[in-house]
Design a protein that fits this description.
728 residues; three-stranded antiparallel beta sheet; 34 helices; 54% helix; globular
DNA sequence: GAGTTTGAAACT
DNA sequence: CAGTTTCAAACTC
């Protein structure tokens, strides 16, 4: 009993510690606290101060990182898919992997008193992954994807992957964590199965510990490209604390779990939703959510807080701390909604969302508190998982939810994801209220927000990019007025096959169309402005003057860039030639070609964002699970094929290895985008990245103006490829 | 709501 | 890669 109390106290202590920033030795701090001392006196177990060993597992962590980059948008998609399945699986929890079971056993076997240690262990095995996940969500995603789709990626990435086998388990773990973090919400259904209880408690503890770490992570991100290194360090610290209990088993599984954990973060959300809603996952996916994100944002948060209040962790607090995991969790937890949001967001298709995102960004920011960059989403995108997307759910699941809460938009992916999240909410509300004509409504109402996608396809069967839904990576829903629609879960195979085909033609076909520029990254909130984003491919308008929605740039709320081949550009968000009414930054784009410097961060569409970026639709709807496509497309090439690609890619590879959180935030999709652009514009492609992560001005002729811009990729090069293979 | 315009996507 | 066709959204009436 005393032990339990002690644990609780510890938790409280942890929770209370406002300063995450002090990453240095959260544990030590913790230990020093009077409460801790008191506890120690009570408990027979003597606390061992955590010693941080930065090195030990760094390799591993790095290895995992690379996976993230395997295939950005693909991964996102996969993620979504993954999520979807996960949802289904969650209830039954059949998924528990052997690893999980092992852990559970061990945990159970251990005395309660030992829980702390166990927790640490769990952290190590699963917890580390978590931290990683929080730090580098993308990686997790990638891992998951790789698992599902192909292990090749994993292999490439690195050593750790070997075990992988249990896709499902990962999610559970993640859910576990999330729950733990949340506080007592364990019951969220996750099916924690057998030892769920124990795990939860353990996890919660671990999560607390992790929390400390997380802050550091955040810091790292802010700091510099090196941030990538940080995660490992804190992981190691955890490791140290509980060294070796598990022994071999853990090692093999750890990596996987870590990945899983990351995945879990995203995934977790879904399960929650399912519980809350009580509806079938499918149903959820199907439904669109067209709530006003504003509403969702604040309301959700409140919701979560209320829910969480009872729970050990206060959402608000968590937000402050900005624990990555928390952020993610929160959204998830919060609700039902959150879950929805999350999943969808991640998804792939931030594209649709992107436009929305722009509008929403401001609002989102408000909500966001701490600002963790995390991933989100990407990927997110986009992240987002997407956000990467999968049932777009991937979306960025992570992104939306946590984004909302977290808010700090530093990363594009986050923004996107947020947007996605909002969108999702919006969709939900709408779906409930008035399913049809959301689109127009949304449009009329605000503009982008709506984001709820509905199509009116007559001949394409909603299996071509003509179809907005399909293009956004979501299934068509009732509001759609399409004929002979095949873009439905029932025809999943067909949809996936078609998608695959399209991706084979154009790997980036489903990638977000709007990318954020690096500038935004710095500015954070301001960065979200449309000006900071650009259309990936650019438009080709001849008559619209880029002043109507015919123009994809205009539609996306971004200025035209060099990439645009438009004539008579009058884009109010920024003209190709550099004249931008809206944004000064737009000027950077100046058509002439200087542009290259655009740093492309995913703007998940409605980035995530979602993931990711992150189209709005994703959130609400069931995202289309990504096919293996990741491997197919060229884009993946960049990601997957670490070595193969040309110089650019090579850099990317480095980038992968060294990827910082920033990259993660950008979202999976981003990378491809970047790559593409690089192709298109030699200058941009290079994105000169100094090893330091400092931006190196590209050789471009036009550079002068662009000098202001920072390239996101910059940071990448500095680090040698983390992947074992890559390591230099 | 029907018809036109527009530009992306798809095809050749 | 360029030109043409197809398509569905955006727009107008």
């Amino acid at each position: 009993m005393s032990d339990d109390k002690d644990q609780d106290k510890e938790k409280t202590v942890v929770m209370d510690t406002p300063e995450r920033t002090q990453i240095t030795n959260p544990l030590s701090k913790f230990e020093d606290s009077p409460v801790f001392n008191y506890i120690n006196s009570l408990s027979p177990i003597k606390p061992v101060k955590s010693v941080h060993f930065t090195q030990t597992f760094t390799n591993i962590s790095f290895a995992s990182l690379p996976s993230v980059f395997t295939s950005p948008h693909v991964s996102s998609l996969k993620d979504s898919k993954f999520l979807r399945r996960h949802q289904f699986s969650d209830p039954s929890k059949p998924e528990l992997t052997s690893e999980d079971s092992k852990k559970a056993e061990t945990s159970e076997g251990n005395l309660i008193a030992a829980q702390n240690t166990l927790k640490q262990q769990t952290d190590i095995s699963s917890g580390n992954p978590i931290t990683e996940a929080s730090v580098v969500p993308l990686n997790q995603r990638s891992n998951l994807e790789s698992r599902k789709l192909s292990y090749e990626a994993v292999k490439l990435m690195g050593p750790p992957a070997p075990s992988i086998p249990f896709i499902n388990s990962g999610p559970e773990n993640g859910s576990m964590r999330l729950e733990a973090e949340i506080g007592g919400i364990n019951q969220l259904h996750h099916g924690k199965e057998v030892s769920a209880c124990d795990w939860d408690s353990l996890i919660s503890d671990a999560s607390e510990l992790l929390n400390f770490d997380s802050p550091s992570d955040t810091v790292a991100y802010k700091g510099s490209g090196q941030s990538a290194l940080d995660p490992p360090s804190f992981n190691t610290s955890l490791m140290n604390a509980k060294p070796q209990v598990h022994g071999d088993n853990d090692n093999s599984s750890e990596n996987n779990e870590g990945l899983k954990g990351a995945a879990n973060n995203f995934e977790v959300e879904e399960p929650v939703d399912a519980d809350n809603e009580g509806g079938s996952n499918l149903y959820r996916g199907m439904r669109r959510r067209c709530l006003v994100f504003e509403m969702t944002g604040s309301s959700r948060r409140k919701h979560l807080e209320e829910l969480s209040n009872g729970s050990s962790v206060n959402l608000s607090e968590s937000n402050q701390t900005v624990i990555p995991s928390d952020n993610k969790l929160l959204p998830l937890r919060t609700g039902n909604d959150s879950s929805k949001c999350k999943l969808p967001g991640i998804g792939l298709h931030l594209n649709a969302i992107a436009s929305n995102l722009v509008d929403h960004k401001v609002i989102k920011h408000e909500n966001s508190g701490s600002g963790r960059q995390l991933i989100i989403s990407p990927s997110s995108a986009a992240y987002s998982s997407i956000g990467p997307g999968q049932e777009l759910i991937t979306k960025l699941p992570d992104a939306p939810s946590f984004e909302n809460e977290i808010g700090p938009p530093q990363n594009v992916g986050e923004d996107a994801s947020k947007a996605l999240g909002f969108v999702g909410n919006d969709e939900l509300s709408q779906s409930q209220t008035s399913p049809r004509k959301k689109k127009r409504r949304a449009e009329s109402a605000g503009d982008t927000e709506a984001a709820c996608k509905r199509c009116n396809c007559k001949k394409s069967k909603c299996l071509k990019l003509y179809c907005e839904c399909f293009a956004a990576g979501v299934y068509c829903v009732e509001p759609c007025a399409c004929h002979d629609c095949f873009n439905k879960p029932i025809h999943e195979d067909t949809v996936l096959a078609t998608r695959k085909q399209i991706e084979s033609r154009n790997p980036l076909a489903f990638a977000p169309k709007v990318i954020k520029t690096s500038d935004s990254m710095q500015e954070d909130e301001t960065s979200n402005t449309p000006a900071s984003a650009r259309h990936k491919r650019g438009c080709n308008c001849k008559k619209s003057g880029c002043l109507k929605k015919y123009c994809e740039c205009f539609q996306g709320g971004v200025g035209c860039s060099i990439n645009c081949r438009c004539e008579g550009c009058k884009n109010t968000f920024g003209r190709k030639d550099g004249g931008s009414e809206m944004d000064p930054e737009v000027n950077e784009c100046e058509g002439n070609g200087s542009d290259g410097s655009l740093q492309m961060v995913l703007y998940t569409e409605a980035e995530p964002v979602s993931a990711t970026p992150a189209t709005p639709s994703r959130f609400g709807r069931q995202s289309i699970p990504l096919p293996n496509s990741t491997t197919k497309g060229k884009p993946p090439r960049s990601f997957l094929a670490i070595g193969s690609s040309s110089g650019r890619f090579g850099k990317l590879n480095h980038f992968k290895g060294g990827l910082n959180k920033q990259l993660q935030t950008v979202g999976e999709n981003e990378i491809p985008d970047i790559l593409e652009e690089n192709h298109r514009s030699p200058i941009s492609g290079v994105k000169s990245c100094s090893p330091n992560s400092k931006r190196v001005s590209p050789p471009h002729s036009g550079m002068g103006q662009r000098s202001s811009r920072k390239l996101i990729l910059q940071s990448i090069p500095s680090f040698p490829c983390l992947t074992p293979n890559d390591k230099q």
